Amino acid sequence: MMRVFVVNSGSSSIKYQLIDVDSAEVVLAGLLERLGEDGGDAADHEHGMRVVLDRLGDEAASIDAVGHRVVHGGSAFTEPVLVSDDVVAGIEAVSELAPLHNPANLAGIRAARTVLHAVPHVAVFDTAFHQSMPAEAYTYAIDRAVAERHGVRKYGFHGTSHEFVARGAADLLGRPLDELTLIVLHLGNGASVAAIDSGRSIDTSMGLTPLQGLVMGTRSGDLDPAVLVHLHRVAGLSVDELDTLLNTRSGILGLTGHGDMRDVTDAAAGGDALAEAGLAVWAHRIRHYIGAYLAQLGGLDAVVFTAGVGENSPALRARVIDRLGHLGLHVDPFLNERAARGPRIISPAGEGPAVLVVPTNEELAIARATAALVG
Ligand SMILES: Nc1ncnc2c1ncn2[C@@H]1O[C@H](COP(=O)(O)OP(=O)(O)O)[C@@H](O)[C@H]1O
Ligand SMILES: CC(=O)OP(=O)(O)O
Ligand SMILES: [Mg+2]
């Protein structure tokens, strides 16, 4: 029986779960917030880890290994690794590619290694699953020397989720993963699409950073890169202001004034024209990627919805799929709308690709990867 303590460390929070890997049981889960702020749960990540261990009480002694979510692994990390001083240095080396995420992930790793020094630690990367993309998919068409010098290419994120969900889709369809072509829509606060051929990612919508691709809660996703130059020149926005605009004041929030998809769907249902227009842009972008990835895959067995929005909103799933009947994609209103939680098929039986809902579980996937590595 192996127990893995899973840590998802953000800049001001630590999310954690203690998971019994064999039974997939979550023994304990929690969240520390507002680290470093007045009245927050702890002064810094190391104090935070000590607070977490206090909360675990007697269960702390049962931890066999620690699994850490690391958002950016650059090109160096193609699978989960045992954390060593060299690995910490390697993660640090790619941190400038993910300034919003990696420094916080590293703070969590350092704190946890100090406080839980007797057990092995494993880093599991969001980027790893997408390292199978071919060069034509990950290459940006800019000067090669500039791109190579600065590590500028598409990396892709949410890989732990895309891989977990692809396996779940194969189980649900009762077919081997290596015979399937899948388009996975991870629609949470951050959102991305992956084209998966025979269990391998061949393209994905996020890029150098988690800003590219779909319209997200607060992130713009795709735009003409000249928008940045234009706003700098005509509006005088600085680099930091542009960064903040695109990452925190754009996306659904920027279009509708609401950051939470539940509020947007409520507002649209109540006749709010901006909410309706925002959802139209959101769905248009998703359909754009479904069409592109159908072409790249050369065939399609299933479209799979996952994460907060994808798992919980029948109305938004229908909004995406209802205009894709010409591709053979349909949702059955009864199957789509019925209250259910587990993996399920929501398309009518018959011809054409299936449409599925497969709940993601990044923490369980990290726990399993950690257990597999420390054996
Ligand atoms: N019933 C629902 N209808 C629409 N959106 C929902 C529903 N339930 C959850 N969501 C949305 O899911 C998003 C959060 O998804 P989640 O995968 O938990 O994100 P993250 O892990 O990136 O924080 C929020 O925007 C929330 O509004
Ligand atoms: C990589 C990323 O966008 O993660 P999240 O969805 O947790 O913001
Ligand atoms: Mg998420």
Largest sheet: 6 strands, mixed
List the ligand species: adenosine-5'-diphosphate, acetylphosphate, magnesium ion
Strand content: 15-25%
The helix-and-strand class reads alpha/beta
Shape: globular
Mean pLDDT: 95
Number of strands: 12
Give the SSE order as H and E letters. Answer: EEEHEEHHEHHHEEEHHHHHEHHHEEH
Q: What ranges have pLDDT less than 50 throughout 5 or more consecutive residues?
A: none
Strand order of the largest sheet: 3-2-1-4-6-5
Cα Rg: 21 Å
Amount of helix: 40-55%
Give the distance, in angstroms, between the N- and C-terminal Cα atoms: 11 Å
Descriptive account of the structure:
There is one protein chain. This protein has 375 residues and is an alpha/beta fold. Helices cover 41% and strands 17% of the residues. It contains 15 helices and 12 strands. The strands form 2 sheets. A 6-stranded mixed β-sheet has the order 3-2-1-4-6-5, sandwiched between helices. The protein has a 6-stranded mixed β-sheet with strand order 9-8-7-10-12-11, with helices on both faces. Helix 10 crosses helix 11 and helix 11 crosses helix 13. The protein is globular. The protein binds adenosine-5'-diphosphate, acetylphosphate (UVW) and magnesium ion. The site of magnesium ion has 3 residues, from loops.
